[in-house]
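Quick review question:
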């Protein structure tokens, strides 16, 4: 930002001094104002042409012509040369590859033609010396800029890989945790559950064979206690097997975690009435996993860090969630394992999922019906 304002102040100051040197008749003023208007309009529009290379090259060819036509007339105006250095700087900054040397050669050729027309040997020597000196400085600046850009690209590549590895480790840890829970659930079911069932059968047999009424009551109480233990064991097994998510609060916790660990900036919006909805565990899991997968895909396949999450209701009968983020390139959306898993989860709760790109923005939109009586 400092360099931008410095360039603007420098350009306006030097241009004003160049016009002051070129003071002429009213007709000349009109021509100077017209050329100055066109020059500054094209110069300030340069950032808009960055995506359209043909327009960018055309503007960079026109700007030196405007300077030459306005300031490189007899007598020679040295301030025009200083303005030409600004155009050379913009060329080095915005043009890549061998084309930049073609532009600089073109600008240098225009200057040489005007210098030869002046028929002043010392003027030519001083001007060429100044051009070589400033050209050397611009070359050093260009090399430093290229080096910084290369370092920036390497940094972004490493950061992208770091995010991928970190997400892979997180996913692997989550899968390991779920596998461990399922393993514990199987062991509880196969070991403790079967033994409690066998104990219930033995207690029942012992109660039937017992003649003493007091002992029968004791066996009955022991059987009830064993049955309660078996029921609690089955509930524990079911809980371990279930991918449990505690409603919308778990989703908010996920957003906080991603913002802290992955440096994302997430805007979270909820329409009125969303918090009143008491979602089932399957519904909560579907929203949680869809949100997690959408944000993970954003980190894997794009360099943006800003995302928007919206939760809302459609006619009080449907829940609708949307995750969207920008992308600066046309993306071919492929239905991989993650998207298929999201759609399957939504299908299980009679919902649907749409993943699409509109105006360089990726939209992940999910909708599912709410059961009557779910509002608190």
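Suggested answer, residue by residue:
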């Amino acid at each position: 930002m400092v360099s931008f304002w410095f360039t603007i102040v420098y350009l306006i100051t030097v241009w004003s001094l160049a016009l002051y040197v070129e003071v002429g008749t009213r007709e000349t003023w009109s021509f100077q104002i017209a050329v100055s208007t066109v020059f500054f309009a094209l110069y300030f529009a340069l950032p808009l042409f960055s995506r359209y290379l043909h327009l960018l090259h055309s503007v960079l060819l026109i700007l030196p012509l405007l300077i030459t036509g306005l300031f490189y007339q007899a007598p020679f105006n040295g301030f025009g040369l200083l303005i030409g250095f600004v155009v050379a700087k913009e060329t080095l900054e915005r043009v890549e590859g061998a084309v930049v040397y073609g532009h600089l050669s073109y600008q240098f050729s225009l200057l040489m033609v005007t210098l030869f027309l002046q028929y002043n040997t010392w003027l030519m020597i001083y001007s060429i010396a100044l051009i070589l000196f400033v050209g050397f400085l611009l070359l050093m600046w260009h090399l430093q800029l290229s080096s910084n850009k290369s370092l920036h690209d390497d940094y972004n590549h490493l950061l992208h890989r770091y995010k991928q590895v970190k997400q892979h480790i997180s996913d692997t840890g989550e899968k390991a945790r779920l596998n461990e829970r399922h393993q514990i659930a199987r062991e509880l079911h196969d070991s403790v559950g079967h033994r409690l069932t066998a104990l219930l059968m033995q207690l029942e047999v012992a109660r039937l064979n017992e003649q003493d009424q007091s002992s029968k009551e004791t066996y009955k109480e022991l059987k009830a206690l064993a049955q309660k233990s078996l029921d609690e064991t089955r509930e524990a097994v079911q809980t371990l097997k279930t991918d449990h998510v505690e409603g919308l609060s778990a989703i908010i916790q996920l957003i906080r975690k991603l913002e802290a660990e992955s440096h994302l900036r997430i805007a979270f919006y909820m329409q009125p009435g969303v918090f009143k909805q008491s979602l089932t565990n399957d519904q909560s899991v579907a929203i949680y996993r869809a949100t997690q997968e959408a944000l993970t895909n954003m980190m894997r396949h794009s360099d943006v860090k800003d995302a928007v999450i919206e939760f809302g209701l459609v006619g009080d009968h449907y829940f609708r969630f949307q995750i969207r983020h920008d992308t600066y390139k046309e993306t071919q959306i492929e239905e991989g394992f993650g998207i298929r898993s999201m759609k399957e989860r939504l299908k299980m709760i009679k919902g649907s999922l749409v993943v699409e790109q509109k105006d360089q923005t990726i939209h992940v939109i999910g909708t599912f019906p709410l059961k009557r009586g779910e509002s608190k």
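Why it works: Confidence is low (pLDDT under 50) at residues 372-376. The chain is about 70% helix and 10% strand.
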